Amino acid sequence: MSTISSPARAGVIRQARALSRLTAILIAGTFLLLAWPLALSLALGRPPAGWSNLTELVPPLVYLLGLVQLRSAFVSIAAGELFGSATRRALSRLGAAMLLGATLQVVVMPNLIFWLMERGEGGGLLRFDVAAFSVGAIGAGLLLIVRLFDAAGEMEAELDGIL
């Protein structure tokens, strides 16, 4: 049972369709930006630049997977599933990708570079990146919001059972 009025529901669906198309463009553009340097170095017959460049690709690849999940959520909403399981699942995976990408960007990758490439000389254990911290916090918040949607769905089912 939908509690959103028809004009509001139609507006949400229309916006989700537009955002789905925009997100598809962002996914393609992001993929090209990530793949271009590697493709160019392989085409020129040169190995990719140092390992640190490859380790710097991992967080953006995780963020790219997050964009794919965001598009999946938009597609579900555009299909009329505003609070359905596919939408909640996609939003949950998006939150996890944001949190994982930020953790990789701030903690894991700098430490890999620090210990494996620089042999523990100089540098620090964390790279303080306000944007990555913010993305991680938003991802964690999104995971909580999805849990709230799950709880609301359970309460709705319980109330429907009573009525």
Low-confidence stretches: none
Average pLDDT works out at 84
Shape: elongated
Q: How would you describe the oligomerization state of the chains in this entry? A: single chain
* Residues in helix, %: over 70%
Number of helices: 5
Overall SS class:
mainly alpha
Which strand-content bin applies to the residues?
Answer: under 5%
Q: Quote the distance from N terminus to C terminus.
A: 13 Å
Biggest sheet layout: none
How many beta-strand runs? 0
Sketch the topology as an H/E string, one letter per element: HHHHH
Could you tell me the radius of gyration in angstroms? 20 Å
Domains, number: 1
Q: Explain this structure to me?
A:
By secondary structure, the chain is mainly α. It has one domain. The chain has helices spanning 6-43, 51-55, 58-78, 85-117, 130-162. The longest helix has 38 residues, at 6-43.
